[in-house]
Amino acid sequence: MLERHLKDDLDDGPGAGDCQARVFNRCHLAEWQRFLADAGALPVSEQLRAVNRFANTREYVLDIDNYGIEDYWAIPREFLAGGGDCEDYVITKLFSLLWLGYPPDELRLVVVQDTNLRVPHAVLAVARGRETLILDNQVQAVLSDRDVVHYVPVFSINQSRWWIHLPPA
């Protein structure tokens, strides 16, 4: 996914300025850049809430319906143009925070087991000092990981590392 994002190119074809198009184009990019510029002027706590809200406005679409395969990790342009599922929200939030200057080591995509719904799910964990904040497409608020008791972490990744989370002994 990271390689695809770095190699990605914008569509300059017909409709390249149409934000309603399902193909990411200059209009979508300009919208995201305007959002990030505005969010950059906010205090850190507000930046996290703004990034969470911005991504959460996108349509939830299963990978099978969007791409014809069971699991696909979309790059931001794919997500911003056509919606996506939980990890796609996380990836766009992660890239947004990187653009805003957050250190990569403070950000992790965490795959969890949702014990309420009994399904896997993905959230973004943001380390802020001694606290870890959770950005979730199912919740508009940014929550402390201590307040999210129905998620059991399975594994997490960032740009340089991955972690397996073992259940408490």
Describe this structure in words.
- The protein has six helices and six strands; from the N terminus they run ααααααββββββ.
- The chain has 169 residues and is α+β, with helices and mostly antiparallel strands.
- It has a single domain (2-163), classed as C8orf32 fold, CATH 3.10.620.
- The longest helix has 15 residues, at 26-40.
- The mean pLDDT is 88.
Could you list some keywords that capture this structure?
6 strands, C8orf32 fold, alpha+beta, 6 helices
**Biggest pleated sheet:** 6 strands, antiparallel
Name the structural class.
alpha+beta
- Order of strands side by side in the largest beta sheet? 4-3-2-1-5-6
Order of helices and strands: HHHHHHEEEEEE
Please compute the radius of gyration using only Cα atoms.
16 Å
In brief, what are we looking at here?
This protein has 169 residues and is α+β, with helices and mostly antiparallel strands. The chain is built from 6 helices and 6 strands.
Write the layout of secondary structure elements.
Blueprint lengths: L1 H6 L18 H15 L3 H13 L6 H5 L8 H7 L3 H14 L7 E8 L4 E10 L2 E6 L2 E6 L6 E7 L4 E3 L5
Antiparallel strand pairs: 1-2, 1-5, 2-3, 3-4, 5-6
